[in-house]
Amino acid sequence: MSLAQALLTGDPGYLPSRREEAWRWTDLRGLIRVLPPPAPAFCGDLPLASFAAPFPTEEVVIVDGQGPTGLDIPAGETRRISLRLINAAAGAGHVGRVRVSLEAGARAVLLQTHEALAGGYVGETQIDISLGDGARLERLVLADDREDAVSVTISDVRLARGAVFNDAVLTTGARRQRLETRLTHAAGESEARLLGLYRLAGRRHADLTSLIEHESPGSASDQLVKGTVDGQSRAVFQGRILVRPGADRTDARMGHHALVLSDTAEVDAKPELEIYADDVSCAHGNTVGTLDDEALFYLRQRGMSEARARAFLTEAYVSAVLDGITDQDLQTVARAWLAREAAP
Amino acid sequence: MPATSKTAAQVLELERYKHGFITDIDQDVAPRGLTEETVRFISAKKDEPDWMLAWRLEAFARWRALEEPNWARVDYPPIDYQDIHYYAAPRAGEGPKSLDEVDPELLATYAKLGIPLSEQAVLAGVEGAPRYAVDAVFDSVSVVTTFKAELAAVGVIFCPMSEAIREHGDLVRQYLGSVVPVSDNYFACLNSAVFSDGSFVYVPPGVRCPMELSTYFRINAEKSGQFERTLIIADRGSYVSYLEGCTAPMRDENQLHAAVVELVALDDAEIKYSTVQNWYPGDAEGRGGIYNFVTKRADCRGARSKVSWTQVETGSAVTWKYPSCVLRGDHSTGEFYSIAITNNRQQADTGTKMIHLGAHTRSRIISKGISAGRSSSTYRGLVSAHPKAKGARNFTQCDSLLIGPHAAAHTTPYVEARNSGAQFEHEATTTRLSEEQLFYARQRGLTQEEAVQLLVNGFVKDVLQELPMEFAVEAQKLVAISLEGSVG
Question: Given an 8 Å threshold on Cβ–Cβ distance, is A268 in contact with B424?
Fold first, then answer.
């Protein structure tokens, strides 16, 4: 069952429903009765990216699932790439797949933007990422979908020996949006950091799902997701860390922290640990709460309006996630994105 | 295996699981299989009123339409529900009027298990220990309930469920199935159709139950299942502490235990429910053992009511159990303290649900899982706050300890928050025993096994201290026995 399968066959019977454990909080079958027609070929001019990377960069553009299929970075090279996934056709469906592979010792910084020129689209994109021995990739994803869109993005990441993957996903949700990351520590001594940040309002929905698999010894995973829900929005966090037999000396941490800002908003979380090796250190933490009344009172006393004080505190709450971005340019882009979202 | 070494192996095994003996007693047994006739047979045996039979038959009809759940992280061969005796009871004439009339074989069994059935008896070796009343359930029937008269003097009803259905029909009818509805889940539905005995407790308004109440469950008959049903009602402003224990003989076959426990706490009432579960876990190779598929739920129906579950799970081949609290009353409180130990080939999927419905409801979950050998232990829990549960609070801590490279430990918590006033905190860790701490303890002259026991007891201390004192001592020993042979 997948959205891609449903879009390719036109059969809504393939849509994931809440009866499936992995989709219990992101029901597509109940939402989509009829699948939209496939997107026509795009012709026209593309606008400039709203968050253009502030560095000399090569640009890879995929419009409605169409575009280059692969991006290969040879051994030892260093690249800065902007990957733009553009939804152009209104009310159309599309499926796309792109490969990003770094050979041994290659390095890359990737800015991945999800952009919309029209609304009502239904799309699934899969990004296959592979890192060779000792390769390093830092990625920032800005998932700017329309509020009436349905969008699923799956990142499948495979890390070879000693590879380092640093990932940050920032989103404002969609009508239904799923950002799924499946990451495998395949050959040991690799490191992954998965950061996530969501700011949801209105009737938006965002689902951050991840599966981190430790197949081999000595790897580390560190995941931190923070977000806020307002209005009638709904955030879903499903994180799973799986440590397979023999993956000794695994060090895995997972944290998810959410603020619920309205009585009609909802947060659903399932942080899972599944462990089959004993020489490990794994932990997860999950909190759901609301703004601290005392802190609000303090700021209001200092002359801030209630709206300003709330915006100030929520921005401070989520922005800690961005400290984990190591590339300075990506960090600047991420902070600009957050500032735009936080503007009252 | 030659006969002598087989015997030697059995003796070794008996040393590990000392409750594994079989009582040879004359029994009344329902024929194997499950049909409407079986349900009528059980109901007739219990001399039940018509409404009860109708209730059972409806449950049976619904059960036939249900499918066995498979979402738990446990793995066992399909159960043949037609190959089980749904009723087994020691043969008796009229039913014993006093202890003197109880079959001496049975009394000997309970003496061997260390359960004081005589009202004068106190726990061996504990001077001035508090008295506690016991309801002893042997296979499908309650054989004796102690201190009934003394409890009745303060208005507390403590009796076998079958007796309650006959004598306190109105109370049973009002509350039975009100916490766990008939078709709540597959095993609860099966239980509703064929439940045999269990305990019934009613504590009247304002009464603090003068002693600990306890039920001791024993499976003895071969090829039988135990389906007990327990219902505890704490009326306004009352308090009761209840403890259950359970054991079974060692057999090569798997036996099914599918119980339902319902607790109802009205305004300002408090129920403390403790379990020391020590069903036969099967042998080191995973042969035999009890399938423990139990539905336990408390309804904190009244304002400011409180229910506290404490469980020490060391037995059973497969455990599927989630004692839960529905926090309906404003300002009500739910607590869950659990130790789950699995060794050899045992599998446990256990945890709790805290459903916050009322305003300012609070809950706390402390779960300690220990897996050794080739066993697997899963914590599965749900904490949810509904839109009206303003100011709901939860704190959850689940820690897992792994002993040995082949053990598995999992944590699957679900959190659903649907209002801005709820505050939920959850933390979980999975580690193995610290080499440094083990080294330190060994250096002080402890053997490897003693050192492990010491560290494990430290790991589970937060839960042990929630148990009534005399059981905490027993539970601590049980923890040590369960882990025997897991370090080498």
Answer: no
Note whether B487 contacts A: Cβ–Cβ < 8 A: no
Contact A289 B411 (CB under 8 A): no
Measured between beta carbons, which residues in chain A are less than 8 angstroms from residue B403? Answer: 278
Domain boundaries, chain A: 1-35, 48-342
Cβ-based contacts of A264 with chain B (< 8 Å): 387
- Tokens 């380092």 appear where? A164
Q: Rounded to whole angstroms, how far apart are CA atoms A128 and B279? A: 49
Task: Say if CB B393 and CB B354 are below 8 A apart.
Answer: no
CB atoms within 10 A of CB B162: 24
Answer whether A251 touches B (CB < 8 Å).
no
Among chain A residues, the shortest Cα distance to B418 is held by: A266
Burial A242-268 (b: 16+ CB within 10 A, else e): bbbeebbbbebbbbbbbbbbbebbbbb
Contacting residues for B193 by C-beta, under 8 A, at least 6 apart:
B39, B56, B57, B59, B60, B63
CA distance linking residue B418 with residue B421, whole number of Å: 9
Interface check A285 vs B, CB under 8 A = yes
Q: Does A45 touch chain B (CB under 8 A)?
A: no
ipTM of the prediction: 0.90
**How far does B376 lie from chain A, in Å, by closest CA?**
9
Residue B474 and residue B245: Cα distance in Å, rounded? 11
- Note whether A275 contacts B409, CB cutoff 8 Å: yes
10 Å Cβ neighbour count for B157? 18
Q: Which residues of A96-123 are buried (b: 16+ CB within 10 A; e: fewer)?
A: bbbebbbbbbbbbbbbbbbbbbeebbbb
DSSP type of residue B470: H
Q: Tokens 């042979």 belong to which residue?
A: B485
Instruction: Tell me the chain A residues in contact with residue B408 when contact means C-beta distances shorter than 8 Å.
Output: 274-276
Yes or no, beta carbons of B411 and A272 under 8 Å apart = yes
Token pair belonging to B232: 């505890």
- Residues of chain B in contact with residue A290, where contact means CB-CB under 8 angstroms, are 420-423
Report the run of H or E that residue B398 belongs to, with start and end. strand B393-403
d(CA A123, nearest CA chain B) in Å: 27
Nearest to B329 by CA among B242, B203, B188, B234: B234
Q: pLDDT 10s digit of each residue in chain B, 488 long?
A: 455 555 555 555 655 677 777 777 777 788 888 999 999 999 998 899 999 999 999 999 999 999 999 889 999 999 999 998 898 887 654 445 566 666 777 777 777 776 666 654 444 334 445 566 788 877 777 777 778 888 999 999 999 899 999 999 999 999 999 999 998 999 999 999 999 888 999 999 999 998 888 888 877 777 788 899 999 999 999 999 998 887 777 777 888 999 999 999 999 999 999 998 888 888 888 888 899 999 999 999 999 999 999 999 988 899 999 999 999 999 999 999 999 999 999 999 999 999 999 999 999 999 999 999 999 999 999 999 999 999 999 999 999 999 888 999 999 999 999 988 899 999 999 988 888 899 999 999 999 888 988 899 889 988 888 887 767 877 888 887 777 776 64
